[in-house]
Amino acid sequence: MLFIFSRRRVFMQYGLIGEHLGHSFSKMIHEKFGYYHYDLKEISKDHIVEYFKEHPFKGINVTIPYKEIAFKACDHLDEQAKSIQACNCIVNKDGKLYGHNTDYDGIVETFKHFDIDLKDKKVLILGKGGASKAFEAVCKDHQAAIVQIVYYKPYPGCITYEDVQRSYLDADILINATPVGMAMHSNASPIDLSPFTNLEFVFDAIYNPLNTKLIQQAKKLNIRCTNGLLMLVAQAKYAAEYFLNQKIDMDLDSLVDTIILQTCNLVFIGMPSCGKSTISRQLANNLHKEWIDLDEEIEKETGMKIAEIFERYGEDRFRNFETLVTFKNCIKNNVVIACGGGIILRKENIEALSQNGIIIYLDRPLDNLIRHDPSRPKLKEGIHTLYKERKDLYEKACDIKIKNDKTIQKTMQICIESLKNKNLYKKFK
Q1: Is the pLDDT of residue 44 over 50?
Q2: What DSSP state is assigned to residue 292?
Q3: 374 or 108: whose pLDDT is higher?
Q4: In the structure, how many helices (H) and strands (E) does the chain have?
Q5: Quick one: which of 290, 420, 272 has its CA closest to 358?
Q6: Which of 209, 343, 200, 203 lies closest to 265 in space, CA to CA?
Q7: Region 259-275: what's the mean pLDDT?
Q8: In this structure, what DSSP letter does residue 271 have?
Q9: pTM for this one?
Q10: Fewer CB near the terminus (10 Å): N or C of the chain?
Q11: What is the distance between the alpha carbons of residues 153 and 155, in angstroms, rounded to a whole number?
Q12: Can you give 68-120 as a three-state secondary structure string?
């Protein structure tokens, strides 16, 4: 809900302000520190200046697009905020606003974690907002040879994406500080990495989805990369220390693992009648997650049963509906998704589901699969042929393969035990 300023102050102790916060993990992270309640407040551009004048808070974090406005609103600024001219953390002390830039600290922490040496490197930073300024300051302070800001149109001090293609394809490090690829626009990428000849590291400041299109492409090209989750967690810790005026002793890597576990999706794929819906629904209940069946979502979207869609419009039209519903649901967090058997036939479906999801292939022995069910049109073509066509696609798409040849409870327990393997979650770091 959008927070609209009124002269009756809505006071909060601590929280995050921004224009659109539906994607944010900040409340979850700050409340892990255990010291305070943390709110999310969306504020319109028309009311942000007045909000800072009234400053009805003890301490706040500031996100897109208000970091530069926050900088101007502060009475006192630390050296990092002054240098960057953007502020993402403000503490209200007796009516005076003290501004900090903990994005800087979060960025330094992330480069350090991945052992990235910026000295003498050629760095491209996409975007020119508050986050971009923090990245620029870190890179310059750590002696990068060239730090170039990229903007979508000509702008003083920036180059365009066309300029990148002409003169900067030998960059060593690429940083995305734009919102392109975030949650509601997760099928977009700010730039194509394939023409670059020398990239060592890609840093996407977006953390929801965890695997953006940009990160997915970097992995395909064997370029080291990370999302913005560690940066977010680290800057939150530093902000909390400013809020409380005390040091917080917490292992950041463990907190990142916890956040991933609580936000990632579990996505079930496999042959028709392999038990995806049954097992996934039970698992969702057990883990207290929302359960989504994509076939049911298609039927809601179209007002038709699956068999009717096949009969009236054919398989291609059905696959279009399936992709539409997949894109609509893959951007959610902390859900369990049961997919139709043919979800793997379009790679864009798996790429979308992998952005926030652990893909679980439920493999049931052929003898146990239903041989004919009028509600499942593709089974009419022969279960053996279908299995042969799809087996490799399922195995290529999955993060875990689980044999469903036991009871529902036993198979579900195997799923839970498999999900305890922390190596699974490295795909999100």
Answers
A1: yes
A2: E
A3: 108
A4: 17, 18
A5: 420
A6: 209
A7: 94
A8: S
A9: 0.89
A10: N
A11: 6
A12: HHHHHHCCEECHHHHHHCCCCEEEEECCEEEEECHHHHHHHHHHHHCCCCCCC
State the binding site.
Answer: 273-278, 295, 319, 341, 376, 390
> Side by side, which strands form the sheet with 224-226?
158-159, 146-150, 122-126, 173-176, 201-204, 224-226
Amino acid at 33: F
Q: Is residue 104 a contact partner of residue 205, using CB atoms and an 8 Å limit? A: no
User: Is pLDDT at 234 greater than 60 in this prediction?
Assistant: yes
Spell out the domains of the chain, with CATH numbers in brackets. Answer: 2-100+233-250 (3.40.50.10860), 105-231 (3.40.50.720), 264-428 (3.40.50.300)
Query: Quick check: 272 pLDDT over 60?
Result: yes
Residue with tokens 């530093």: 238
Residues listed for the chain: 429
* Chain segment 146-191, per-residue pLDDT in tens: 999 999 999 999 999 999 999 999 999 999 999 999 987 888 999 9
Question: How far is Cα 313 from Cα 106, in angstroms, rounded to an integer?
Answer: 51
Tokens standing for residue 340: 């139709």
Integer Cα distance of 35 and 11 in angstroms: 18
Of 177, 149, 183, nearest to 164 by C-alpha is 149
- Please spell the DSSP secondary structure of 177-226, one letter per residue: -SSTT-GGGTT--SS--TT-SS--EEEE---SSSS-HHHHHHHHTT-EEE
Quick one: CA dihedral 252, 255, 259, 260, positive or negative?
A: positive
Tokens (6 digits) for 7: 């002269």
- Could you give the CA distance from residue 270 to residue 284 in angstroms, rounded to a whole number? 17
For 337, the 3-state DSSP assignment is: strand
Q: How many CB atoms lie within 10 A of CB 175?
A: 26
Q: Are 358 and 399 in contact (CB under 8 A)?
A: yes
Instruction: List the binding residues for Mg(2+).
Output: 277
Which residues line the annotated binding site for substrate?
Answer: 295, 319, 341, 390
One-letter amino acid at 209 equals P
Burial track 22-43 (b if 16+ CB lie within 10 A, e otherwise):
ebbbbbbbbebbeeeebbbbbb
Q: 358 vs 168, 181, 352, 425, CA distance in Å? A: 35, 19, 11, 8
Q: Directed axis angle between helix 276-287 and helix 408-418, to 10°?
A: 60
